[in-house]
């Protein structure tokens, strides 16, 4: 089977949030490898420097929940890359507990990053993409964007909100030739799992960040006159 790549990745100017590990790290690497110009961002300055040096790309320390930091990230990205036309809206955290054991502070912390942070980055991207009448926004959701489960109140609620924002942006931005897309991976083996203190079983059969990066590159490669609105990615056999 022969595939035709429609997008010239050498023209892709990509901002990746949450790029110092896991899915964001691998998407940054993959897009860099196929010719895109990339800027990686994250909250930890040392990890941002490491990722930028590792890939030979630009780096910027930014907390996505801080509006000023997001404004500065995009300003720096445009200054260094000449323009920006792809946002990988990936930064996110997970805190999991039973409903009665979920502190309000934890609920709010998840929403600060997963919802407010995603909103701020998408809003800033639109400010640049609308005047140039072109752009691509990838919101990294989760299968938790599609249905809830026990002990997932804070995280699942935040990921449902991501789906809502993607739907709104898709309806609002299509007429400006901006593609708002979402990827919903199921369990992916990253340090996110360890930080959330979740048990890892059958690791060999679970998704890896490279699997998600492959989907992002494939969706981005499509002819600009069309797009896949969202893609859910499951492991074939986790048992």
UniProtKB/TrEMBL annotation:
Family per similarity comment: Belongs to the short-chain dehydrogenases/reductases (SDR) family.
InterPro entries, sorted: NAD(P)-bd_dom_sf, Sc_DH/Rdtase_CS, SDR_fam
* Record-linked SUPFAM superfamilies: NAD(P)-binding Rossmann-fold domains (SSF51735)
This protein's species is Mucilaginibacter defluvii
Signal peptide extent:
none
Quote the protein name from its UniProt record: 3-ketoacyl-ACP reductase
Mind telling me which Gene3D superfamilies this protein's record contains?
NAD(P)-binding Rossmann-like Domain (3.40.50.720)
């Amino acid at each position: 089977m022969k595939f035709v790549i429609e997008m010239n990745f050498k023209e892709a100017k990509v901002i990746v949030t949450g790029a110092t590990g896991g899915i964001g790290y691998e998407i940054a690497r993959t897009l860099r490898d196929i010719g895109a110009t990339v800027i990686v961002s994250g909250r930890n300055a040392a990890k941002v420097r490491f990722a930028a040096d590792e890939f030979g790309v630009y780096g910027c320390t930014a907390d996505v929940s801080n509006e000023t930091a997001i404004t500065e990230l995009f300003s720096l990205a445009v200054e260094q890359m000449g323009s920006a036309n792809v946002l990988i809206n990936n930064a996110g955290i997970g805190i999991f507990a039973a409903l009665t054991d979920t502190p309000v502070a934890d609920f709010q912390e998840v929403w600060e990053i997963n919802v407010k942070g995603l909103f701020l980055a998408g809003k800033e991207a639109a400010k640049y993409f609308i005047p140039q009448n072109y752009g691509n926004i990838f919101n990294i959701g989760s299968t938790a964007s599609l249905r809830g489960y026990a002990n997932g109140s804070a995280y699942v609620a935040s990921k449902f909100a991501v789906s809502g924002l993607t739907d709104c942006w898709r309806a609002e931005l299509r007429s400006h030739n901006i593609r708002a897309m979402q990827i919903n991976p199921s369990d992916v083996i990253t340090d996110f799992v360890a930080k959330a203190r979740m048990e890892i079983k059958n690791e060999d059969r679970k998704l890896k960040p490279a699997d998600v990066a492959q989907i992002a590159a494939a969706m981005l490669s499509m002819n600009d006159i069309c797009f896949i609105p969202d893609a859910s990615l499951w492991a074939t056999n986790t048992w």
